[in-house]
Structure formats: C-alpha cells, structure tokens
Amino acid sequence: MENPVVVEVTRGDLVESVHRGGFALVDGAGAVVASAGDIARPVFPRSAIKVFQAIPLIETGAADAFGFGDRELSLACASHSGEEGHVALAAAMLAKGGLDGGALECGCHWPFDLPVALDLARRGGEPTALHNNCSGKHAGFLCTAVHQGEDPGGYVGADHPVQQRAKAAIEDLTGTDLGADVCGTDGCSIPTYAAPLKSFAHGFAKLVTGEGVAAERGAAGRRLIEACMAAPWEMSGTGRACEKLMQAAPGRVFAKTGAEGVFCGALPDFGLGFALKIDDGGTRASEALVAAVIGKALRGDDAALADKFDALASKTLRNWKKITVGAVRAVPR
Amino acid sequence: MENPVVVEVTRGDLVESVHRGGFALVDGAGAVVASAGDIARPVFPRSAIKVFQAIPLIETGAADAFGFGDRELSLACASHSGEEGHVALAAAMLAKGGLDGGALECGCHWPFDLPVALDLARRGGEPTALHNNCSGKHAGFLCTAVHQGEDPGGYVGADHPVQQRAKAAIEDLTGTDLGADVCGTDGCSIPTYAAPLKSFAHGFAKLVTGEGVAAERGAAGRRLIEACMAAPWEMSGTGRACEKLMQAAPGRVFAKTGAEGVFCGALPDFGLGFALKIDDGGTRASEALVAAVIGKALRGDDAALADKFDALASKTLRNWKKITVGAVRAVPR
Q1: What value of ipTM does the predicted structure carry?
Q2: Residue A1 pLDDT more than 90?
Q3: How does pLDDT run across A276-308, given as a tens digit for each residue?
Q4: Is a pLDDT exceeding 80 seen at residue A151?
Q5: Do B189 and A320 touch (CB under 8 A)?
Q6: pLDDT tens digits, residue range B69-83?
Q7: Residue B121: which of A118, A282, A321 has the nearest Cβ?
Q8: CB contact under 8 A, A325 and B42
C-alpha cells in the first residue's frame, strides 16, 4: 500500500513531478489527531530529532555549568548553514569546554547553501569541521562529555556514554526499543535510529505537554524547544525553511528539518507534536508538507495564522530569467 | 495505479528512501521491448531531447556552413557543467555566427557542479549566460537563425522560427501533436512539450535505425548522437553521469539527462531507444535507473558490458568522514 501523493510540482498546466509521503500529528496522550500515509513503519529521523539528542546536555547540568543560553542551546539542536556566526558560536561553545574544532568528529563539508559557500571561497577560505552543519550538536556532545569527566575521544561511537545517553532519551520519548536492526550511521558519524513517525511525533508532544515524561526531562525538552524558537537563525540559517516557519509564528511553532525529507516539530499551545517523511527524501517537498501540516493543525483555532502557513505550503518556481514556470505545492486534503 | 519503486536508498540494513518511476525501451518499429510503470502519460523530457531540438541545426545546413564538428555538435546537445572549456566553446560557436554571449536569452546561473562553481568564485569570477548549462544548445539555435537570415531576437519564443522548427522535429519523431495543453516553459525559457516516455524512446529508435523517419532527418540525428558519443565531456562535464555512461561503452551507448529525473538515449547497435522518468524528479535515482536499463538492454548480447552497467546502477553512499553508510541502487527486476 503506497503512501499518498502529498506534494505536486507543476509546469504550465501539467503536473511534472510528484512526491509521496506521510505525516503524524499526535497529542500528549499519544492519540493521532491527523495523519496521512504509513506512520507505523520505521523512518530515520536524521537531524529532525536533535532536540532529543541534546536533552542530556541539559539533564547532566552541562548547559548550566557552561552558561549556555538560548543561542547556544539552539545551535546544539541545529543543522546550521555554516555562516560565520554559526562557526564562531560553535567555536565559542567548545572553548567553554576547553576544546576547539580539532575535537570535532563530524567531518567537514562545504556549506550547503550556495551563496554561503561561494562567499567562503571568494575570501580564499576552506571549510573546517566547525562549518559542518552538525557542529553545534557535536559541540553540545563534547561539552557534556567534558562536564561528565569522560574522555571525549570517540564520542560519536554508539558505545560512548554520549551516544548511550542520547539513545536512551530517544527510546524514552518515542517509547520504542532502538536495536542494531534499526540503526544506521548518520552523515556526521553518530548512530541514527529508525522508529515510526507516530512515535517521534508523540515524543515531541510529551515534551510540550509534560505528559508521559519525567518532569525534569519535560522541562529540559521545553527549554531546548523554546531556545530554538527564540533563536531560529542559530538553529538553521539565513533564508532557511526552519527560520521562516518559526518566524511566521514566534514562540508558537517549533519545526526542525532532517535529511531525506523529514521534519519534526511541535505546537506547544495545542499540546501537539508532528513528524513527517517524504518517501523519496526530497527536501522541497518536506518543506511544502510541513507548512501544510502546521496550517492544518492551526485551522480550527487561528484561521489567519493557518492561512499564513498554507501560503508557505506553495512555492512559485521561476526559471533563470525569473519567468514563472510552475509551482511546488502541498496537495490540498 | 502508481509506478513501481525503481530505486532504493539504504542506510544500514534499512531502506531509508525510495524512488518510483517508469521507463520504455523501444525499437525502430515502435514495439516496446521492455518497460516499467506508466509509459503513456505525458512527461516533460526537459534537456533529454536536446538532440531532437538540434536537428534543424543540421538540416538547415547551418552546422556545415559554420564548420561545426563533433565538439560543437555535442555542445549543441549539452547540459554542460559550465567549465572553462564549455564556456569557451559556446563563445566560439556564437562567434562563427557573428554573435557573442550577449545574444543568449537562456539566463544566467552558477555552475551546478559545486567544485566548478567554487573555482569560479575563488578566481573572483561571476557566471555569464555562457555558463548556463544550455548555452551550447542556444548557440546552436542562434547560429541556425543567423544562417536562415532570421532576426535572432526572441529566438526562445514559441512563435519564433527556431522554436517552430524544433517543435516540428519533436512532433515528427515522437508521432505526437504538441499543443498548448502540453506546453510548459523550460528553465532556459524555451518551450518544453510533454509526451509519453514510449514516444520519446521511439523517436530515438527511429533516428538510430532510420525506420519511420525521412532519410535526411535520420542522418542528421545519427550525426548528432555520434558527436555526443565521440565528445561526451562537451555534452556534460567532468565526472558527470552522462560522460561516465558513454565512456563505459564508447560509440555504443548514447545517454542524455534531463531535469526532474529524466533520461533519454539510444543503443545504436541494437536499434533501440529508451526514455525514463523518476516520478519525484530525483536525479540520483534517474542516474541509477538509466544504468540498469542499459544493462538490461545489453544483457542478452554482451554480459560483460551489461555487468559494467549494472555496477553503475548502484552507488555507495559515504558520510563526511568517508564512512560507508548506505547505497543508492536500482531495484533488481
């Protein structure tokens, strides 16, 4: 049974390409408020659950020991664009732990955003591990290890206490067992575990409602989510989808992208969490679908805000002469 | 009825993402030798049919008048990478027609290949219209207009003789009527017409067999296809999929990529044409599928060469530390 078409790409009057996928919108008790497609099969969440992975940074006391505020906590949950401010903030976080970029084991890549990459090249620069989109998350991992008196070397390995703590948090929040059979290696070399969209959505709902989660953990999760909502640029970057979504409704929407067409997030006012996956991994489609899912969640309560998100669910496509040629749009349901 | 999954993306032991699509392998008489999915619905071929669009360049005598050889003809069918050699060759073609890059109406973009773009930025350069991946095709259009004594201005418009000739060639080769209802605007601003995969595949088969096509047109098409096979770098670029595919079997395989997950091509020895489309537009998937389709076509006749293409149908995925994390592979059928 295939997932439904959730996003269409048009050219002229025709549909040129289609994206299939699924989403789950879940409340604190785990009830599915809305969904599409298969929300029970295991999905790799990739970067969309960085908040879960950062919970030990708070719970161990490391964040407070190093004086991390909203900007640092947001970067610890970020897939950032590698702009100079992101790089500097990651370096500053590591410095608090007595470390520098040499401690990072995430690997190195050019910034994904072309203008950012071109700017770096023009200045004769080359990316370092600090430019890696995950460097803030890894800075959080390293600072936690330092705080715990652990040897940070090998902190990306599944058996290192850093990854064991992250895994335990994800298992607790999703209510799933994450064994080797659902384990893969992420782009930044840490383990990534697949679980149902429904379970990831429920995990975010637990955090924003406090239901089904220990009080300390719920507070830690809300602190991270609030930091991301307060500092969306740090979590993403200039012109990025996550920044746009959260700036459209400050303090009311948390949305985090993950590679291979994933988004997770929460609507704290409504006590809801959401998770979605585009079958083919297409980010243009996940960005359209997440706006539509948020619009759907808001529709009954705040029509004007829902309209704003529905508008974000459709993006005009222009060619190299800026002529409108088509659109990428979530399929109305 | 949905198209089958044709390409899988794995991480660890799990399938992380999937791509659906279809393909048609057709002989000169129009018989479908092999296929998958819906090969009858209209698909925008995008750049995959640049050979059809370049036929008037030969038929009008313009190519001979300007002394175009394999390199120029290949560039006239190219979606090139905007490397210095591509830019220089496009400029040289235009100069033959007494024009320069200022005549191009394709618009301007940074080279799609990151290393090429970074290199240009490092040198303090900015792209011009000559860097546009379609600049060779447009140089061919402009030189044809000059040869015909036509005002080249507005040559991208549907009503200009240049586009009228291109449309007539596509209609003839595909055996379809290309009306406004199947017309869209391409990235480079010329019209693009949707037709069935089966029809595009048949068009390429006609060219390589001479069946169902006027002798002069068949010869023109074969001349263009042979130029592309002889000069694959000009048609694509360093490390590009089309270059790799054609270099794997020199003179025996013609393969041309199109945006939104399309490939068209031909196997002249076998008198076959092919066309494929990935539903979601994903190029990583079209590149895997085209290798599998070519391997399938070769299997009964040249097992060693078929093995070579089957190997190209599976690509190891490595992360930022070069650790193997998964694969993109055509689903064995």
Answers
A1: 0.98
A2: no
A3: 999 999 999 999 999 999 999 999 999 999 999
A4: yes
A5: yes
A6: 999 999 999 999 999
A7: A118
A8: no
Rounded Cα distance between B186 and A13, Å, is 13
A-to-B residue pairs, Cβ atoms closer than 8 angstroms: 152
Q: Of all residues in chain A, what percent carry a pLDDT higher than 90?
A: 99
Do A258 and A274 form a contact (C-beta atoms < 8 A)? no
Q: What is the pTM of this model?
A: 0.98
CATH number at residue A160: 3.40.710
- Residue A71 Cα distances to A25, A76, B75, B143, B220, angstroms: 28, 9, 50, 57, 62
Residue contact A281–B17, C-beta within 8 A: yes
Q: For chain B, how many structural domains are there in total?
A: 1
Neighbours of A228 (CB within 10 A): 28
Residue B194 to residue A14, Cβ atoms within 8 A:
yes
Chain A nearest-CA distance from B123, in A, is: 7
The answer to whether the Cβ–Cβ distance between A280 and B11 falls below 8 Å is: no
Q: Where are the alpha helices (DSSP H) in chain A?
A: 50-59, 62-65, 70-76, 84-96, 114-122, 135-147, 161-174, 197-209, 215-230, 232-235, 241-247, 283-298, 303-312
B172 CA: distance to closest CA in chain A (Å): 22
**Residue B1 above 90 pLDDT?**
no
Q: Looking at the predicted structure, is the pLDDT value of residue A237 above 90?
A: yes
- pLDDT exceeds 90 at position A158: yes
Q: Do B16 and A184 touch (CB under 8 A)?
A: yes
Q: What residue in B sits closest to A156 (Cα-Cα)?
A: B321
Residues from chain A that touch B2, judged by Cβ atoms under 8 A, are 2, 20
Give A131's contacts in chain B (Cβ within 8 Å): none
Share of chain A above pLDDT 70, in %: 100
Q: Is the dihedral of CA A227, A228, A231, A235 positive or negative?
A: positive
What are the C-alpha distances in Å from A43 to residues A178, A330, B71? 12, 21, 47
The angle that helices A161-174 and A215-230 make with each other, rounded to 10 degrees, is: 100
| Average pLDDT score, chain B | 98
Contact B320 A106 (CB under 8 A): yes
- Of the residues B190, B193, B280, the best mutation for testing chain A's interface (the one with the most A CB atoms within 10 Å of its CB) is B280
Instruction: Print the domain residue range for B33.
Output: 5-330
Contact B194 A19 (CB under 8 A): no
Per-residue confidence (pLDDT) for residue A39, from 0 to 100: 98
Q: Which residue of A has its CA nearest to B20?
A: A280
Nearest CA in chain B to A4: B2
Cα-atom radius of gyration of chain B, to the nearest Å?
A: 19
Are the beta carbons of B186 and A321 separated by less than 8 Å? no
Token pair belonging to A152: 């940070």
